[in-house]
């Protein structure tokens, strides 16, 4: 993946008629307006039956869902030039359809759970699969997400390639929205060869502050207009990110940080924040 590969692609939104899908369409509309990109909404009917009395009601249901999502998109933006919106009902399963679309998309946006998931389900199976295998950045939106103002963008970094890609994506998002970035670097005993006691923490904190300052030097040069707030904390990464993202408009994470083992595609920190964050979460994929 190069830095510019997805710059001009569409925003692809998964639609299934659920409240979270409508929230995803609303978020995608505002993001597309900022980027001046097209919106492509895909509904997967997964049509495997041959009988018209089964196929026709299914297709009608998803056409209605797309029409409703289109109205949401049109009502969510106030730009001189209307967004270009395309909609399609596809026959393939939703995971396959959206993964195929991620090859050409700038961004894929979905709700955290689909139409068939119960209220106790935090993440649907489609969302988890996309977070693991999506080939472009993925944003997961809850139906309760309402942050779109001057709230900040939060990103976590651990010095891994995935962390650096997340930082780059977060700064790009913040620059476009003219908001600050909070960069979170969390230390915990599990990450250290020697446990860090309370009395040791000031020394570790000073070293971590210096390391983070060096780590952000290049992205500071690229985005001089972005205000940066650094948060070095002695805590578990997921808990630190969730704490700092309570009032954020977007939380950005890499698919897998330095704690992952070879072949791991979605790290435990990324999965934890996807399950618990109240704001939209962007997962930046592995480099390829």
UniProtKB/TrEMBL annotation:
InterPro entries, A to Z: Rossmann-like_a/b/a_fold (IPR014729), Universal_stress_UspA (IPR006015), UspA (IPR006016)
Gene Ontology MF terms in the entry: ATP binding
Key words of the record: ATP-binding, Nucleotide-binding
Family: Belongs to the universal stress protein A family.
Protein name: Universal stress protein
Domain UspA: 10-142, 152-285
Gene3D superfamilies assigned: HUPs
């Amino acid at each position: 993946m190069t830095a510019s590969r997805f710059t001009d692609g569409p925003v692809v939104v998964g639609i299934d008629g659920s409240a979270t899908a409508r929230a995803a369409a609303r978020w995608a509309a505002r993001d597309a307006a900022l980027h001046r990109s097209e919106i492509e909404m895909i509904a997967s009917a997964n049509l495997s039956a041959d009988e018209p009395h089964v196929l026709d009601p299914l297709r009608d249901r998803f056409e209605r869902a797309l029409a409703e999502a289109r109205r949401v998109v049109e009502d969510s933006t106030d730009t001189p030039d209307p967004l270009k919106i395309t909609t399609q009902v596809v026959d393939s399963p939703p995971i396959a359809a959206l993964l195929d679309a991620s090859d050409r998309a700038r961004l894929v946006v979905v709700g955290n759970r689909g139409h068939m998931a119960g209220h106790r389900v935090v993440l649907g199976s489609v969302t988890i699969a996309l977070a693991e295998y999506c080939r472009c950045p993925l944003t997961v939106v809850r139906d309760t997400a309402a942050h779109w103002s001057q709230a900040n963008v939060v990103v976590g970094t651990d010095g891994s390639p995935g962390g650096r890609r997340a930082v780059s994506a977060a700064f790009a998002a913040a620059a476009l929205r003219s908001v600050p970035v909070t960069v979170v670097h969390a230390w915990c005993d599990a990450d250290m060869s020697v446990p860090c006691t309370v009395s040791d923490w000031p020394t570790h904190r000073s070293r971590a502050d210096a390391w983070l300052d060096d780590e952000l030097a290049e992205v500071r040069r690229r985005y001089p207009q972005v205000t940066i707030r650094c948060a070095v904390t002695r805590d578990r990464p997921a808990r630190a990110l969730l704490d700092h993202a309570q009032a954020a408009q977007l939380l950005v994470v890499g698919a897998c940080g330095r704690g992952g083992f070879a072949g791991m595609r979605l790290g435990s920190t990324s999965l934890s924040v996807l399950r618990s964050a109240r704001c939209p979460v962007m997962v930046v994929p592995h480099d390829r």
